Fold this protein.
Amino acid sequence: MTLDIYQQRRVALLNQLPENSLVLLAGYQQKVRSKNIKYHFRQDNNFFYLTGFDEPDAIALLIKSETTSFQLFLRPKDKDQEVNFGTRAGVSGAVEHYNADHAYPVSEFTTQLLCQMKGITSFYVCDETDRFSSEIVSWTNHHRHNGSFDTPKQFVAIKQLAEVLHQHRLIKTEDEIQNIRLAVKASIFAHKKVMQACSPGINERELSALFNFSIANKGCSDVAYPNIVASGNNACCLHYEENCCELEDGQMLLIDAGAECQYYASDITRSYPVNGKFSNEQRAIYQIVLNALDRAIEMIKPGLAWNLINETCMKVMACGLKELGLLTGSIEHIMATESYKRFTVHKTGHWLGMDVHDVGSYHDTAGNWRRLENGMVFTIEPGIYIPLDATDVPEGYRGMGIRIEDDILVTDCSFENLSKDIPRTVDEIENFMAEADG
Ligand code: GLY
Ligand code: MN
Ligand code: MN
């Protein structure tokens, strides 16, 4: 993305804030993995969305008073540190390359902030990791005691930036959609590689590594969340991350994995038989989940209330489970008592963007379920989970978790299923896996 985009976003945000606002954006700090080894750094999404600056320890101030200003506080240049850990933009680089109106070493932050707070009446804070939670009160106190002598001492109003900013992030622009498309495209390639490599005897960790290798081949350096590569009963743990078991003949495999591209996520799940051929029980459950997903996807268009996606998926899965005899009683009774939840376990989707579970409220300001709009991106991901210890269920169904997850873009009058090109029907999967064997 070009620098202009970050500037446009700052302008759009400040336009919505009252006069005399100050926005504090706390960037992330480097996390330690062990002793002097650090985790690879990834900037806070809100910070990156508004600045494009991805060095650790940075802080930004956005000021809206008589004029507007963007100030960046960052690690100064340091030859020794840069030889060891990579180059830094430094103070002059922040102005030159990141459009900062002023830049300072981060050590000068408190002094500058207290100066900038004069005349401010709204103090918007975006500090995801509570980096400054203990200082904020003392800063506002300082501000309160430093007004002019003839005005009453007043606390500045501390507000959450998230409430305003996350509405912006919820509706994706073309550039953002392009990054999500690239992430999805890499994931499609990788999911297909894994599906072809899947067979009894291979280890979950090998498939996880193959996924990462394959997205790298398509230009993505990282995944958006830890891969879930879960064979058999492991898939009944929704966020299974151990990825350490050998796949066995007769099991299902669930793989939930998504590449990240330029800070934008994909999030895709496929489930298929380890040996490439569904058993009758596996096919029956898989088809119920796929029917639920397809029924929900068909409904997508601007104006649809968010909750109807989950309700539709649940109704289809409840009917399917009743037909199989895994749920008893009338469908009205099943829906009223929510007895299907024993097998469906989780809700069926979330916004997708810079965060895999992206920001933005699922309700409007009146408290009603949000309605879909052009430019929203989200997942639909129904699942049915039948653990080994569900001994009241016929044996052939036990020890499997089946989830199918697609990434959906809302367009001006319809939708696009961005991830549809990974085999998803029973025939597509069996044929694709048979081709790999041949
Ligand atoms: N991969 C996390 C999720 O599907 O929500
Ligand atoms: Mn998801
Ligand atoms: Mn997922």
Summary: The first helix runs from residue 3 to 16. The radius of gyration is 25 Å.
